[in-house]
Amino acid sequence: MSEPRSPGAGAARESVHLHVYDSETQWTWGAAVSISSSLGRSLQERPRARLLLSGGTTPAAVYAALSKAPLEWERIDVALVDERWLMPDDPDSNARLVRESLLQRNAAGARFETLTRAGRSIEEAVATANMHARQPADVVVLGMGEDGHTASLFPRMRDLDRALASSAPYVATDASGCSGAGNWLRRISLTPAGLRPAHTRLLLIRGAKKRELLDRVLAGDDAHEYPARIAFTTPGAPLHVHWCP
Ligand SMILES: O=C1O[C@H](COP(=O)(O)O)[C@@H](O)[C@H](O)[C@H]1O
């Protein structure tokens, strides 16, 4: 890892643990076992555990592996790190991805909170998400786009400042002007304030491009350049990065 630019930033990077796997299969099972172990520990300590999941193209195999974990899934609340302003059954929604990959097999009995719901405005959806977020997350699974975004916090996004500085766990975002957001500009996203209380943080990434990007992300601390930096600059739990080629 690069030399820290300040004692504070260095301390944050020291709390990043990189788990490297040789193959996608090992990565899938390594990450799934890590999430499952954390949830199991939480269930020993509390009546319910809370799991926040990202969407995108990376995590489906891990979620499918996790769905086979022998956990008391009826005691687990599954919610989303972020969502495109789409209904939960839309094929491009993160909710649909989680439902089809995780909420199957042993995990079919988990309680699932979507961020969007028919007939609900985006402001109402954010208010409901913030109410649910009063229960701190046990495990947060983050992703990172090739532009360095995480959740729905995109570089140069119009209201990135507001989202990064927000004291609310979730905000509505407008990703206009950020090509990484694709056709989905209106979104709901976890903020650093929402990430902070989580007991366990994971970042799931694959491929050479994202490994190079990770090095650049870890070499600085400005979340405006790479919002994915909130994963390790936000005070709280260490970050476990799971990567395979
Ligand atoms: O838009 C999103 O992208 C990120 C990263 O996705 P990936 O396809 O590069 O893995 C994801 O973490 C986020 O939940 C999603 O809404």
From TrEMBL:
A single GO molecular function term of this UniProt record: 6-phosphogluconolactonase activity
Q: CDD domains per the record?
A: 6PGL
Reactions catalysed, semicolon-separated, are: 6-phospho-D-glucono-1,5-lactone + H2O = 6-phospho-D-gluconate + H(+)
**Residue span(s) of domain Glucosamine/galactosamine-6-phosphate isomerase:** 31-231
Q: In which pathway does it act?
A: Carbohydrate degradation; pentose phosphate pathway; D-ribulose 5-phosphate from D-glucose 6-phosphate (oxidative stage): step 2/3
Give the EC number(s) under which this enzyme is classified.
Answer: 3.1.1.31
Task: Please report a single Pfam family linked to this protein.
Answer: Glucosamine_iso
Record keywords: Hydrolase included?
yes
Q: Which UniProt keywords apply?
A: Hydrolase
UniProt keyword annotation of Disulfide bond present: no
Identify its protein family.
Answer: Belongs to the glucosamine/galactosamine-6-phosphate isomerase family. 6-phosphogluconolactonase subfamily.
Question: Which NCBIfam families does the entry mention?
Answer: pgl
* Stated role: Hydrolysis of 6-phosphogluconolactone to 6-phosphogluconate.
PANTHER family attached here?
Answer: 6-PHOSPHOGLUCONOLACTONASE
Protein name in the entry: 6-phosphogluconolactonase
Organism, as annotated: Luteimonas endophytica
Q: Which gene encodes it?
A: pgl
